[in-house]
Specification:
This protein is an alpha/beta fold and 327 residues long. It is 46% helix and 17% strand. The strands form three sheets. It has an eight-stranded mixed β-sheet, with helices on both faces. The chain has a four-stranded mixed β-sheet with strand order 5-14-7-8. The chain has a two-stranded antiparallel sheet with strand order 9-10. β9 and β10 form a beta hairpin. The longest helix is centred in the C-terminal third of the chain and has 21 residues. The chain is globular and about 70 Å long.
Length: 327
């Protein structure tokens, strides 16, 4: 078996058929299977999965536990059932938009033996709403100091998770043994990507080939900016406590970025005390990163000593003007 599609689903009655169809319409010169972990949904998801399995028994292989086991155990069980040389991820509320997606990604990985993960950009939309997602195309060209490139590494991934779950294909076998901390983190997709990226580089097919749906029943759902930043920072802190110290520097870059964003959010809401708190936290975790530290220091001074900060900026402008005039 060349490739396995790993799909986990729970209460995706409205979306699961579209997800499955986007797999079945893939045009490949290799064989593939679809492993669906259906975690005892309370709606009609399981019946839809069974109907598709009866139509395509050679391709679709559902895992149907008798009791709800939870998202992370369901993900691990479904991953371990995948027999392919490669594994593609697709959750039951997302879908692929290109029938050549799998072929293009496998071709790239076959040509690049050092590649452990292949990905591509995706579109993001809010289901049933005219509200535009913060990132209509994810990831953006640059975020948190990380620039999207054709070849990236674990160092980039530790700053923030730029990999959309429905976009990745990775080599099978790196996840045979799941570390105990995997269940403590609670962020299954990012943890999976990090474990895979420890074995090679991360390469991009620069083409949008999937849609990611945001809806109230989703794992992340529509969250306020503040809640997103707090969640992101919390995930980084947990990961920092679990991974070896050699990864701390890059994880701190991500923590610093979230502190900066949270400080800005609180400042805009008029809560200067909380804004200062996160600015000082940003300053602390960014030490050792000269450019990031300088930016954090300026931000902290502006909030904690606004008069001194304005005076220093005025002096700097006067000095710069005199220097330029002299020359």
């Amino acid at each position: 078996m060349k490739l396995s599609v790993c799909m986990i689903t729970y209460n995706h009655e409205k979306f699961i058929a579209q997800a499955i169809e986007s797999v079945l319409t893939q045009e490949t010169d290799f064989d593939y299977e679809l492993i669906i972990g259906e975690d005892c949904s309370t709606d009609g998801t399981r019946e839809i999965v069974r109907n598709y399995q009866s139509r395509c028994p050679d391709i679709i292989h559902p895992l149907l536990p008798e009791h709800n086991i939870g998202m992370l155990p369901n993900l691990v069980a479904t991953l371990h059932a995948c027999k392919g040389e490669y594994v593609a991820l697709l959750e039951g509320d997302d879908y692929w938009t290109s029938p050549s997606k799998l072929q293009k990604q496998v071709d790239l990985m076959e040509a690049a033996p050092t590649c452990s993960i292949c990905w591509h950009p995706m579109k993001c939309f809010v289901e049933g709403s005219d509200v535009e997602h913060d990132f209509p195309v994810y990831p953006p060209d640059s975020l948190y100091g990380v620039t999207a490139r054709d070849v990236m590494t674990l160092d980039d991934l530790l700053v923030y998770n730029f990999l959309g779950t429905c976009t990745v294909v990775f080599r099978n076998g790196f996840l045979d043994e799941i570390p105990s901390w995997f269940y403590d983190i609670g962020v299954g997709d990012w943890s999976v990507h990090i474990l895979n990226a420890m074995h090679g580089d991360i390469r991009r097919v620069d083409e949008i080939m999937a849609d990611h749906r945001i809806h109230p029943g989703g794992v992340h759902g529509p969250l306020s900016a503040r809640k997103k930043y707090i969640s992101g920072m919390s995930d980084h802190l947990k990961m920092r406590n679990c991974l070896p110290r050699r990864y701390t520097k890059q994880l701190n870059r991500g923590i610093s970025a979230y502190c900066h964003l949270l400080s800005g959010e609180y400042e805009r809401s008029g809560d200067i005390r909380q804004a200062r708190r996160y600015a000082l936290a940003e300053l602390w975790v960014s030490r050792g990163h000269h450019g990031q530290f300088a930016h954090a220091l300026e931000h902290s001074l502006r909030l904690s000593f606004p008069f001194g900060y304005d005076l220093a900026r005025a002096c700097k402008r006067i000095f710069t003007h005199k220097r330029d005039k002299h020359y």
